[in-house]
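Input record, target 12 of the design panel.
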């Protein structure tokens, strides 16, 4: 999801206010100094309020912004909070009566700023996540990146992208899914963990499975895709399904495919 441009404005005003604070501080500290360095040291303390999650009081991890009011929190803190609430923890605006999770969005710019400003935060977080997955014997999703398969049904692999604008939706929000076959006629995929755009639809996933299992994406009509044993509509996006049927859990979205059953 692309954040509205007002978010960029907010980001800009945040940076502006960080700059102003740092100028104030240098004025306080260094009036007598003849130091004319272009770069000035800013105390992390003076920036902290802009890069801290008010829910956990830690530095923002997986910064996630509410698209209604543009307040930002850690993804895990916010998702957990929205389990029981539908309002912003800061300004208490009602995000959405029933589906607040549809109105939050990963804030990459903010996260980049946090990682730039806080030394070793990114390395420590990565290490922490790797240990978490290791202790549970679950493959680490971010390490799948190297040999991931992307759902590219509209184009073939032999065609190179025409230009920079064709990025196979890699700049979209991504979703991790685990895709398993059901029934005797359905062999399992060579790689069942897939990372692809959250904007991909069930129809595209069906074509992908048909291509892998039957060597023909045209056989997508023979495929049902299920989540929690319910057949999924072809027009739903993975974003919609992970939010409505998978409760945005921090684990790959579990989907099954099977030979289509006429009801
Ligand atoms: Zn937090
Ligand atoms: Zn808010």
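The sequence produced for target 12 reads:
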């Amino acid at each position: 999801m692309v954040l509205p441009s007002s978010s960029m404005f907010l980001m800009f005003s945040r940076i502006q206010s960080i700059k102003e604070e740092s100028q104030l501080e240098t004025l306080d500290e260094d009036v007598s100094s003849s130091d004319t360095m272009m770069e000035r040291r800013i105390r992390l303390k003076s920036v902290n309020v802009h890069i801290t999650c008010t829910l956990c009081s830690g530095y923002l991890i997986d910064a996630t912004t509410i698209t209604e009011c543009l307040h930002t929190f850690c993804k895990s803190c916010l998702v957990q909070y929205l389990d029981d609430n539908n309002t912003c923890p800061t300004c208490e605006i009602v995000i959405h009566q029933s589906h607040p999770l549809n109105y939050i969005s990963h804030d990459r710019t903010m996260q980049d700023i946090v990682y730039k400003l806080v030394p070793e935060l990114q390395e420590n977080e990565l290490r922490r996540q790797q240990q978490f997955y290791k202790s549970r014997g679950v493959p680490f999703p971010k390490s799948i990146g190297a040999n991931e398969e992307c759902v590219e049904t509209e184009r073939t692999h032999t065609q190179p992208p025409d230009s920079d604008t064709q990025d196979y939706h890699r700049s979209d929000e991504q979703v991790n899914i685990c895709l398993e076959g059901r029934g005797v006629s359905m062999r399992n995929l060579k790689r069942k963990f897939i990372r692809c755009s959250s904007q991909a639809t069930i129809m595209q996933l069906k074509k992908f499975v048909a291509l892998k299992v039957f060597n023909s994406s045209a056989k997508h009509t023979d495929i049902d895709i299920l989540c929690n044993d319910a057949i999924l509509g072809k027009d739903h996006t993975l974003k919609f399904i992970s939010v409505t049927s998978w409760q945005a859990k921090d684990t790959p979205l579990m989907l099954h495919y099977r030979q289509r059953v006429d009801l």
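Residues 185 and 259 are 7 Å apart (CA to CA).
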